[in-house]
Amino acid sequence: MSTFNRLHLIRQVDLFTLKLFVSAVEEQQIGLAAIRENIAASTATKRIQDLEDIAGIKLLERGPKGVVPSPAGAVLVRYIRRIFENLDDMRAEVASFTEGMRGELAIASARTIIVPFIARELGDFKREYPLVDLVVREMENADIVHAVARGEADAGVFAASHELDLGGVDVTPYRTDRLIAVVPQGHRLSTRTSVSFADLLPENLIAVNAMQSALRVAARRLGAEFEPPYTVSSAGVAVSLVEAGLGVTIQPECLVSHELFGRVTVVELAEPWAVRHIHIATARGREVNPIAAALIRQLLDRPRDEAAA
What we know:
Elements: H1 6-12, H2 15-27, H3 30-36, H4 41-55, E1 60-63, E2 66-69, H5 71-95, E3 103-109, H6 111-128, E4 132-138, H7 141-149, E5 155-159, E6 169-184, E7 194-195, H8 197-200, E8 205-208, H9 212-221, E9 231-232, H10 235-243, E10 248-252, E11 264-269, E12 275-283, H11 290-300
Parallel strand pairs: 3-4, 3-5, 7-11, 8-9, 8-10
Antiparallel strand pairs: 1-2, 5-12, 6-10, 6-11, 6-12
Helix pairs in contact: 2-3, 2-4, 2-5, 3-4
Domain HTH lysR-type: 18-70
GO cellular component, one term: cytosol
InterPro entries: HTH-type_LysR_regulators (IPR050950), LysR_HTH_N (IPR000847), LysR_subst-bd (IPR005119), WH-like_DNA-bd_sf (IPR036388), WH_DNA-bd_sf (IPR036390)
């Protein structure tokens, strides 16, 4: 590795890479940091490797369960957080010289999208536009689309599915993530590299309310009925029941935290519908108001090199 050079660091490292590095430390996995920052995993890995090359020292210690900061990495994290705190202070002071954008913005989305993806984006947006009153409505996918079509929400962020009626909305692709199978340690499927829905259907399949419709459709394709013995409201509860040996579950990968990996087994779900396509919806035929347009631009913003990853 090269020797640390302050001028080289300033010229070569962008703020997004510094933010990505902090996310990797907080998530304890580069892959989860990539999901959090809306960037391809391969691009995230390369950015952090380039940062280590510039620093001239290992910043992350890599192990079988994830990553932790090296002593030098811990120092870097402390200073990066200070940089972003100063940027927030600067933004607030500059904003005080002008009223800026003001008004109300109603956003509808599902918990499985709010928690891993847009909550941080909404926080950044609120700091950027402090005079905007944000109204966040947690809904299921069909209700999100209906709320936007009826004008009850300025924009919605939802996971696409075949049964959704999108006639009243315009949609813009936002991002993708994957559904995975979560099984107890030592379960007969825990040694598999991948499983199908047919493999999981005979098990006690613990269903989160928001996913029941999609799982019923998948079961019907197999000529089976889906009658889950347990239905819960959150991914955390479902995974806890799996850990207790009460069954298996299907969850978005981004909702299964790193610390659970040692207590349950995560297996790839080999189904075409296991890739979740997440879209932004706005009312069809209506002009998007400037506040909603500003948020949508922020959500769609991508690092320049992501497309090349």
